[in-house]
Design a protein that fits this description.
With 483 residues, the protein is an alpha/beta fold. The protein contains 18 helices and 21 strands.
């Protein structure tokens, strides 16, 4: 059995640990990939020896609640004693978890469950001693008596009893300041930014009476940050990482059970049936690999003959739309990254045309990197919040570094040159040459237990595809061989 690694926090993670331990109610502003989850668990573990911290309720987006927190708890040796459970699923499944509450230290749940949880437990039954609100930007719409049903339910819970509160989110961007009041209310009940949202808005923002849009005044960000500095810890990656290398963040995802079954059938038998009875077959192991890559992304082409189009994308010979959607796991994960970017532009690398169709549907504010020079100009001046680029069309000569410093690999293929080229479009060297003193973040959405892990190792180690596939087979992992 593989020995569990020991979590050894970086200096800035120790700052998070100390901050949480010292502040009964606080917020941590740090970007995705900086290890907020592990540092928070470490702080709670230390605190539990001093005061009754458990049980803890972690509220997060569904994927984060169901996977990320539970995976992080099981990953590190010093957290192995903590008992955790996902509080989700059907009402009966949730009630079963609550019935076993005495044997659980950390409950994780998604925002959608909050109204049900409050209605079920109420003030008298609210048993949690600590509340961790992950990706707290989800609370930005809270306006006291207004806001979403979920936010109002959480508001009742936060002040239902004396309990610790830890908010985790990305560092607020200037254009996100207008949404900060709702998040801070859960930390201090309006003490620092105003008892009402209206008071907050009047103090730090100007209203355009023609468009009804509010914009922060010149000193708003500085004054707001000073007002909350005693309870909010803001961490900038550039203060703790070398700007010479990108900051890599591997986001491990899992296929739904029914989709994983179809994946294995294609992988091992080159054939599967979709729910509607459509037959999916692969004429060779090479085609099977492509179909496995498609399934990992969330869809599959309904025909077996695949060719490259003029820009290097995989494209079926029939209509572009001839694919079936299987899951939204990666789309949901990307949405969380875009939200946590707090308005900063995000460059997204995709592989298949079907990916692009689904991405544009989920993110209508996004644009495809095409051959029109105006698209690059719009990106570089911040007019495009999400830019979708195929690595084959983002090669030598394109300058995208002014537009942003966040790259997400929604999917990838085995082409190492394409992979390195799209990183270079916004890479550290180009950031430095353009005068930007900011780190480059690279988020990789990896569907575990699939061909994507082989691709990942190929791209990171530059080992040959055949060598990696054979090594995987020797380890007992079923992988189709490259034809």
């Amino acid at each position: 059995m593989r020995e569990q690694p020991v979590f050894r926090p970086r200096d800035y993670q120790n700052q998070i640990v100390d901050w949480i331990m010292e502040k009964p109610k606080c917020a941590i502003w740090a970007g995705m990939g900086l290890g907020k989850t592990a540092a928070t668990i470490q702080a709670l573990s230390f605190l539990s020896t001093l005061e009754p911290v458990f049980p803890v309720l972690v509220v997060a987006p569904l994927r984060v609640a169901r996977s990320t927190w539970l995976d992080e708890l099981s990953k590190w040796a010093q957290f192995s004693h903590l008992r955790a459970s996902f509080l989700g699923g059907t009402p009966d499944e949730r009630l079963k978890v609550l019935a076993n509450a005495d044997n659980i230290d950390i409950f994780t749940t998604n925002y959608e469950q909050l109204p049900w949880l409050w209605d079920t437990l109420g003030v008298n039954g609210w048993m949690f001693n600590t509340l961790v609100i992950d990706e707290a930007t989800r609370l930005k719409s809270y306006r006291g008596r207004g806001g979403s049903i979920r936010a109002r339910a959480l508001a009742k819970a936060v002040w239902a009893k004396k309990q610790r509160v830890v908010e985790l989110s990305g560092t607020p961007a200037p254009n996100g300041l207008v949404d900060l009041w709702g998040q801070m209310w859960f930390v201090d009940n309006g003490k620092r930014l105003g008892e009402t949202y209206t008071a907050y808005e009047r103090k730090w923002f100007d209203l355009n009476k023609r468009t009804f849009r509010v914009t922060p005044r010149e000193n708003a960000q500085k004054e707001i940050e000073e007002a909350v500095s005693d309870v909010c810890l803001a961490l900038r990656a550039e203060d703790h990482f070398s700007l010479e290398e990108p900051i890599h963040n591997r986001i491990a995802l899992k296929l739904p059970e029914d989709v994983h079954k179809k994946y294995k059938e294609v992988e091992t038998q080159l054939f599967t049936l979709l729910a509607d009875g459509t037959e999916i077959s692969a004429a060779s192991t090479g085609v099977a690999i492509q179909k496995c890559m498609q399934i990992a992304n969330g869809s599959i082409y309904l025909n077996t003959q695949v060719e490259y189009d003029e820009e290097g994308e995989f494209l079926p010979r029939e209509a572009v739309g001839s694919f079936s959607e299987l899951h939204d796991i990666k789309l949901d994960a990307l949405e969380e990254i875009v939200e946590e970017a707090c308005g900063a532009p995000v460059l997204v690398s995709y592989t298949f045309r079907a990916d692009l169709v689904r991405l544009l549907k989920r993110f209508p504010q996004g644009r495809r990197l095409d051959t029109n020079p105006q698209t690059i100009r719009d990106w570089n001046v911040g007019k495009i919040p999400v830019l979708f680029a195929h690595p084959a069309s983002a090669g030598h000569g394109l300058n995208l570094q002014d537009g942003g410093n966040i790259l997400v690999f929604f999917s990838a293929d085995f082409n190492l040159e394409h992979h390195l080229q799209i990183i270079e479009r916004i890479g550290p060297v180009r950031q430095k040459q353009a005068g930007h003193k900011r780190p480059v973040f690279i988020h990789r959405l990896i569907m575990t237990g699939t061909i994507e892990e082989v691709i990942e190792e190929r791209l990171l180690t530059k080992r040959s595809t055949q060598d990696l596939l054979m090594a995987a087979v020797r380890k007992g992992m079923s992988r189709p061989e490259v034809a």
